[in-house]
Amino acid sequence: MRQLATMAGISNPYLSQIERGLRAPSDKVLEAIAGTLEISVDRLYEQAGVSTDDEDEDPVVEQAIRDDHHLSPRQRQAMLEVYAAFRAVGKSAR
Q1: Domain boundaries, position 90
Q2: Measuring CA to CA, which residue among 65, 77, 24, 25 is closest to residue 33?
């Protein structure tokens, strides 16, 4: 826990409060934690059991982006955001 807090640049007590549900982390803190774990913020939510998508399953493309460790965490997040934007436009065009 201490190592994660140090690597994410947040205090150990604050991380502990987040873990116990006493504090809701900001987007910046979530991004720092996800980046440290080399996963997307969405994946972090999934691991916590919180759904961020309206659909039950992630598209195969999203999973492939998440699993591609040749990309940096920020690159994966950017790719997921671009893909989500294209999907949103596609849904509205139907």
Answers
A1: 54-94
A2: 25
